[in-house]
Amino acid sequence: MSGLEAVAIFAAGIVAGTINTVVGSGTLFTFPVLLGFGYAPVVANVSNTVGLVPGSASGAFGYRRELAGQRRRVIGLAGASVSGAIVGAILLLSLPASAFKAIVPVFIAVALVLIVLQPRISRAVAVRRPHARGRVGPLATAAVFCGGIYGGYFGAAQGIMVLAILSLAVDEELQRLNAVKVVLTGVVNLVSGVIFIIAAHVAWAPAGLIAGGSVLGGVVGARIGRRLPAQALRAVIVVVGIAAIVHLLS
Question: Which domain holds residue 45?
Answer without folding.
Answer: 3-249
